[in-house]
Every structure is written in structure tokens, then in C-alpha cells.
Amino acid sequence: MLSLSEKNPHSKVFILAILSVSIMITTGTAVSSALPEMAKSFPNISVEQIDMIATIQQFSVMVTLLLSGIISKKIGIKKTITIGLILTGVAGVFPFFSHSFVLILISRLIVGCGIGLFNSLAITIIDLFYEDPTRSQMLGFRSATEQIGVSILNIIVGALVLINWHASFLIYLLAFPLLAFFLKVVPEPSIPAGRSDKKQKINFPVIIMAILMTLMVACSTSVIIQIPNIIVTDLSKSSAVASLIISVNTLMGMVTGIFFGRIYGFAKKFVLPLGIIFMAFGALVIVSYHNVLGVTLGAIICGISYPLIGSYIFSLVSVIAPEGSETLANSTILIGANLGSFATPFFLSGLGKLNSLSTKSGPFLSMFWLLIVLTIIVFVYQIFFQRKTSKKWSAKHDYQQ
User: Fold this and answer.
1) Taking the CB of residue 68, how many other CB atoms lie within 10 A of it?
2) What distance in Å separates the CA atoms of residue 306 and residue 300, rounded to the nearest whole number?
3) Cis omega before residue 307 (within 30°)?
4) What are phi and psi of 319, to 5 degrees?
5) Are the C-beta atoms of 363 and 226 separated by less than 8 Å?
6) What tens digit of pLDDT does each residue of 233-272 get?
7) 352 exposure class (CB count in 10 Å sphere: 0-12, 13-18, 19+)
8) Would the pLDDT of 211 be above 80?
């Protein structure tokens, strides 16, 4: 039995239990370092289709992301999270037993259904149990927890893939002890009676941010998916090396997310183009240096990028969304992020056709030029058109400490 102090939302045990749910949210790409080995077992399956093993779950995430709120209203938040984690654990482990590519793809779709059920609720429970400034701190910790989770799991996958690619999917067994911990510590949160049920809507700025998030997540996921192909195919190194590089990439994202407030205090609204330019130069380093050190350095630079962009965009929601529609705006941007992850194999294939390089790192040259153009567009827009929005954002978010 837990003591009353441990069930206090501000106790360390309770905080860990709340955050533990987020560990499984970004596990889709954690198996990417096993994909080159998996491809050897399916010689008749294209590289793009193999890469979908790490991204196809994002399609079903998008669907259940919209349904999770409806389901949680009927059966409760805690039960919805429970169902989501069970689906993620059972379907996630399925490829360990299966040799059918079609069935594995279906299992990955079910993983997405599970993740979609608790993705937005991992944010909602923080909103219900905490108030600012603790709420803002917890949301920052939650983002860092995602990065910590995928970093640790990437390292574990790197060890398991030495057995065989099937074994790498055993990481999804982690869903069950996390569920047990969550169920034991966290009670069903109460919904405030004053919460408005009025119809929400989105506007053009939210749609633009969702599109930008789609593109940037596609770029970020491309790094995670393509690094194993570069390391194994181009550089003839092991999948374990690729797994370590991906872990460094995600750890750098975690560190950047933690220090986002200080970075914003220095760069202000230019955090957004700064994040894009980091991704661009990271891509250039990956394609320019044909060795493990170059790929690692490029992955580190790219790892700095996404937390800057994502944190800024989600913080901007309270400014650009119609009043009272922040929840729908967040869901719309999350859908954009998941769409970017889902479309990554096709995105990589398209980028590869835009230049004559035949190496696995070739798509990153096209990505560099695409992001340079995007940086210029965003920079010009912010200088000439975003003065009013920037002042309103700064008034609502004090990152000057």
C-alpha cells in the first residue's frame, strides 16, 4: 500500500507515475535500428515498405488521437490510458513471434491505436492534477521523459538486435510494468465542473503551424530512420552503432528541451528559424562526411533542432488559437506531427530523387536546401509580419529567468 504522502500529486512517486505514461509515446521509431537486419529477412520487400515498420503506427495514432477524448468522457481517463498501454504492449511484442510482414504491419497499426489513446491524455492528466507554475514545469518534464524513454529503448534495441531483429520488439514489454505503476499510484482525475463544452474551431495560423510541424517532424524522423541505413549499408558498421547514434540524437533533444526557456530568453521569436537552421546544417554534415563521426555530429546537431521548433509552436498555441479552442489546436498540431512521422518513408524517397547522389545519405542534401529556403521564408515573415504576435506571446510566457 502507498502512503498518503506518496499519493500526493507533488510527491516524487506520484510525479514519476504521471510521467511514466509518456515513456511509450515515441517508441515507434525506437525499432528503426533493427530495420536493416529485418530487411534481410524480407528481400522482396522494398526499403520504403520496411521503413514503414517504424512509422505506419502514426497513421492510426492520428485517428485515435481524435477519439481518445470522446472515449475518456465515457469510460474515464484512467481506463482509456489502461486500454491504450495494453494495446501498445501486446501489439508491440507481436513481431517477436511473427514472420509475416503483413501481420507485422497490422500489429504496428494496432500499436498506433494504443498510443493514440493515451498520447493527448498524458498531457490532460497533468493539466487536471497541477496548476501553474507547476503545470508548466511538469509539461516540460513530460517532453523530456519522451526523449529519455526513446533514448534508453534505442540502447536496449541496439543490444537486442545482436540476438536477432525479432528480439528488438521485446522493448514493448515495458508497457506492462509502467501500466502497473500508473494504476497503483494515480487515481482517476476529477474533471472541473466549470469546463466549457462549447464547440471549438481552428484558424489559419493553427493550420500553418500544423503544416510546419508536419514538415519538421518528417525531417527529424528521417534522421532516425535513415541513420541505420547509412551506418549499415554505406559504412558497413553494425546496427548497434546506429542505435547508439540515435540515442545521442534523442538525448541532445532532451537537453535542448530542458533549456528551452533560457534559449528563448536569448533568441526570442527567432527560436523558430534557429531550430530550422540547426536541422539544415545537421543534414549537411550527415551528407558531407562519409564516416561514423560525421554522421554522429550531424545527428547531434539535428537533435538540437526539433525541441526548439516543437516547444515554440506548442507554446504559441495560446496566442494564435481562437479563444477557448486551445485543446483542438493542440490536437491539430499533434495530428500534423504524426502525419509527418507517418509520411517519412515517402518523404525520404522523394528527397532522394531530387539529386543524383546514390548513397543512403543522399536525401539529406535535398533536405538541406529545402530547409534553407524555409528558414529564409520564416525569418522574413517574423521580421516584417509577426511583431504583434511576438509581443503577445512574450507577455504570456515569462522565460527571462
Assistant:
1) 26
2) 11
3) no
4) -95, -45
5) yes
6) 888 887 778 888 888 888 888 788 777 777 877 877 788 8
7) buried
8) yes
**In angstroms, rounded to a whole number, what is the distance separating the alpha carbons of residues 310 and 55?**
19
The CA distance from 374 to 157, in Å, is 34
Task: Give Cα 61 to chain centroid, integer Å.
Answer: 12
Instruction: Report which residue type is found at 268.
Output: K
How many helices and strands (H and E) does the chain possess?
18, 0
Contact 144, 259 (CB under 8 A): no
- Give the three-class secondary structure for 237: coil
The amino acid at 176: F
User: What 3-state DSSP class applies to 120?
Assistant: coil
pTM of the model: 0.74
- The Cα 190–Cα 299 span in angstroms is 42
Task: For cell 500489429, name the residue.
Answer: 107
**What does the alpha-carbon distance between residue 228 and residue 33 come to, in Å, rounded to a whole number?**
5
Q: What is the dihedral of CA 68, 70, 75, 78, to 10 degrees?
A: 40
Other C-beta atoms closer than 10 Å to the C-beta of 75 total 11
Residue with cell 504559441: 316
Residue 73: Cβ within 10 Å count? 12
Question: SS3 for 194?
Answer: coil
Return all residues near 32 (Cβ < 8 A) that are at least 6 apart. Answer: 51, 54, 224, 225, 227, 228, 246
Q: Are 223 and 280 in contact (CB under 8 A)?
A: no
- Candidate from 87-96, 186-195, 310-319 with smallest mean pLDDT: 186-195
Confidence at residue 400, expressed as pLDDT on a 0 to 100 scale: 43
User: Are 368 and 283 within 8 A, CB to CB?
Assistant: yes
**Cα–Cα distance measured from residue 73 to residue 69, given in angstroms and rounded to the nearest whole number:** 6
77: which DSSP letter?
H
Q: What whole-number percentage of the chain has pLDDT above 70?
A: 89
Here the cell at position 126 is 497533468
φ, ψ of residue 334 in degrees (nearest 5): -65, -40
Which three three-digit cell numbers place residue 317?
498555441
Q: Which of 71, 89, 88 is nearest to 80 (CA)?
A: 71
